[in-house]
Design brief:
Helices cover about 40% and strands about 25% of the residues. It is α+β, with helices and mostly antiparallel strands. The chain has one domain (about 5-85). The strands form 2 sheets. The protein has a 3-stranded antiparallel sheet with strand order 2-3-4. It has a two-stranded antiparallel sheet with strand order 1-5. A hairpin with a 5-residue loop joins strand 3 and strand 4 (about 30). It comes from Agromyces tropicus. Pfam families: PqqD. InterPro entries: PQQD (IPR008792), PqqD_sf (IPR041881).
Length: about 90
């Protein structure tokens, strides 16, 4: 099993279908709505399927069409210190 989880320094608040995530205490705050919020939620849910496959299923997209963008977005969240990969 793979996936991601927020780092210990990440604060996350959900309000009216929008996620707000920040590295604490200094931020900045990242606003995740729409597909960005969906990718975050899917990435943090335990599953044997890849994040790309689950996002594709939920959006009706082809995995090959979205793979690069989803992986780039997840890499950016990891680089910012908001998420960390779970070894699987």
């Amino acid at each position: 099993m793979g996936g991601y989880r927020p780092t210990d320094a990440t604060g996350v608040v959900e309000h009216e279908d929008v996620l707000y995530a920040a590295t604490l205490p200094d931020g900045p705050i990242l606003v995740l709505d729409g597909i960005a919020g969906l990718i975050w939620e899917v990435a943090c849910e335990p599953s044997d399927d890849s994040v790309v496959d689950r996002v594709a299923e939920l959006t009706g997209a082809e995995p090959g069409d979205i793979r690069a963008e989803v992986e780039r977005f997840l890499d950016d969240l990891v680089r910012r210190g908001l998420l960390r990969p779970i070894a699987g």
